[in-house]
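fyi for ur records
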Amino acid sequence: MPSGQAAVAAAFARERWLLPRRYDAARARALERFLRVELPKARFYAPLAGRPLSSLPVVDKRTVLADFAAFNRHGITLDHALAVAEAAERSRSFTDRLPGGVTVGLSSGTSGTRGVFLVSEAESRLWAGILMGQLMSPQSLRVLTRRPLRVALFLRANSNLYETLESRRVSFSWHDLTMPVAAHLPSLPGTDVLVAPASVLRQIATTKPAGLRPLQVVSVAETLEPDDEAVIREAFGRPVEQIYQATEGLLAVSCPAGRLHLNEAHVHVEPEWIDHQRFHPVVTDFTRTTQYVVRHRLDDVLLAAPGPCPCGRPGRSIHAVLGRADDVLTLGDVPVYPDVLRHAVALAGELGDYRIEQHGAEWRLATTTGSSGTTERVATEVGRLARRLGATAPAVVPMAWPAEAPDAKRRRIRKVS
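which gave:
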């Protein structure tokens, strides 16, 4: 077996069978070594060497981008990384690497600021092993003993990171979301693991090409909403699993019980609590030593799950990734979280797909049904929600369907102003 494939296999076996037995001790040792040995190699953290994690500064995407070279061990500048990433975006060829075999990737910039990430070849292999160890179902593993497992991944951009999945055991195909989804459908029959944003999975589910009977269906890159999950599950006869990954790393993977388990064996997560259920994660990835992710605060809003998970997997779990901070609308000073608003909208009856944008005191609604009275029904339910929250109801008005790029992440709820 080539050394790269052997490294992936070793990471897979360690994640699947060894790590759960040594969970707390292994993560404590790895985090301690990372802080002591690896962190001082980045210019930003060198003056802070020896300090405990809790005393290190909390940073965000803008902090990192303002002095990108200080947050990676090679001193790669933001301009250099962006030049390589943007050239790949234009050419749609994602094979180029930076010196030292470093892969550069570019996020879609949902928050308005595009993120840039760097990973080494060794980190890519580790990522592939960890992801497969956490995600692969028993049915998919049985396929691996007989033939290559066919994985189809729908994303805006490919990456050397994702190509790491390709091996004698895994046949990996990337499907470019800048092309119409319909163009990819003929190649999907025979796929074992179908991975795509929730909105794309729903499109595929509504057409369901003959011969497409995946063993696993996995939602990535977007919030998986209950109505999408129901349609996709019905079409494929499979639960919809989830991978929660960001520029900052692999953050959570779902389990058979339906929860998302934070990747705490490799990423230290400090909750910044919003209320007794919801929090922003502050993450430290102690497996990455090319680009340092240390006490990095995300704008994502996570919904905590209580107690140990019924699946028996160690570590904390969450019920859902609710969206970004700017997916939280407001009624005066009262926040309206996406999960609460989605429930209220569901009570208004069948809307098809929809978009809600807040523009000051006005909430604008677009739907795909176009049926009479839709806006009024939603306004009624939003008014009831406002009364329960002790707030003044907004004006709910219809709007045209907003222009959306085919490769953009879907955001049904968004605060514009």
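DSSP finds twelve helices and 20 strands in the chain. thats all i got for now
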